[in-house]
Structure prediction request, 592 residues.
Amino acid sequence: MAQSLLKVSGLKKAYGAIQAVGGVSFEVMPGEIFGVIGPNGSGKTTLFNSMLGQITPDEGKIELNGEDVTQLGPLELNRRGVGRTFQTLQVFGKMSVRDNLIVAAQEHSGTMLSRIFAPGDSNLGAKADALIDRFRIRHVAHKKAGELSYGQQKLVDIAMAFMSEPDLVLLDEPCAGVNPSLVGGISTLLKDLNHNPQFEKRSSFVVIEHNMDFVMDLCHRIMVMVEGQVMAIGTPAEIRANKQVLDAYLGN
Amino acid sequence: MKKTTLISIAISALVLLTLPQFLRNYGIYLLTYWLVFVLATMGLNLTVGYAGQKSLGHAAFFGIGAYTVAILLKAGISWWIGLPAAAVLCFVVGLILGFPALRVQTIYLAFATLGFNTAVWLLMRNEEWLTGGTFGINNIARPGLPGISLDGNLAYYYFVLGVTVLLSLLLWGLLRSPWGKAFTALRDNPIRAESLGVDIRNYTLLSFAIGAVYAGIAGALFASLVQFIEPAPFAVAASIMMYLMVVVGGPGYFLGPVLGAAVGVVLPEWMRDAPGVADWYLPLFGAAVVVLMVGLPDGLLSLPDRIRDRKAARAASAARAQAAADAAGAAQGAAKTGAM
Prediction:
């Protein structure tokens, strides 16, 4: 069996008396799109924050390509190939769209000293332009990111996570607040980026999302969390057929 | 480079080079004073305007630079050694002051840096053996260049102008490099920046340290300009004034400090001398700043951007109105055709 890209084992995190995550284990394989669903308060965000180094788990282990990264912070994780998007928009509002993309990858090459003498676009202009075309935001590429519409900013936000060609991208509710017509567009883009023919690299995703149609369509496998525990892991078809999941979460 | 940019650079150079020839001694002195503050607030603009670190301790570095040169001169050490010493000392102290910024931000950081400024000021006032206390240090010499004396106000003006232009170009280069984007990313959204591999710790510390170096060099130039220093110009009030200059000029605009320092240094001096205004200059100055902040919260240099945005908005709404009119016309046309 191939080595997993991400391996989470026995992860636990409590806030006071509340056990937000109570022993979660799963693996994400290279090239896989892995969905995480569950009702509010089921521990998805705590799990995500642990995987991203925002919080340190009480117990358990997180491995990336076989390396123990449990104690690492967001910066080190990103340098090791973990990208992310946030639940809310997080673009650099006063920079142009193109500069947003460039700054998203410029720290991945050279040293701080060498970057003083590097060209302003860190030789990332062509790569930024490729993503701009792919995300169809060419017409706003030179506008300040903060002046764009919500949907456009969302696209910039997602594009930024892919600039440094990460192995793994964690997407926190990529469809939150996005109008239905764009949801389909984002889904297509993500599938496309999963294959990533331009970057000669397949990015894997972990996606938290409430939009069931989106998740079922996009993900290869899905994990259902309820009250900090894993209720089920399986393909979308398996999850849809799982009686326990239907009762607890999917309902109708 | 655009033609207009080149022309404005040429005009500015011409004005800066020839203007002092038409001024009396005090005018030249005031112009030099302005340049010193341009340099100091350029550093603060990096820390506050570009990197977003709310520092109210900038005058402390200004003072450290001034006192370093003055004390070393008294000890018989050359100004040309004192200047790099001031820069290095400010860099190190600036790095150290950056550490609180890794833990606290916004108003809390402002208070931490304000405390630092007060501590440095107390040191200047109380450690008489070193700083001369409230009596200060007088007879501070001006530096000399081989074969050229800078003792005259005009010669010293050109020297300060040269240093200011040189350091502006260095800062311009730094901000055009990837560092400029990293600083802006740090200001706009540190959490996102970190998730994209931007080492926000290093950039935060360096934004303080580099800003401090500019203040330190400005302080050294200041000491030799006024030739007498005491603790007062380096107190918290001066830090607040420098912050004001950055805000008035336009934080994050490269030339913001040029205008800001003009408003903060030249305008009050001019108002003080203007007949009829003299008695009112402080309240008038305060009122002018309030009006400016209400009307142009992003500073004087945001005015061109504002005008451009407004034009763009007007053009867009005109286009929308036109499109709506066309659509209505087409619908009417269609209805007529339908009726027939």
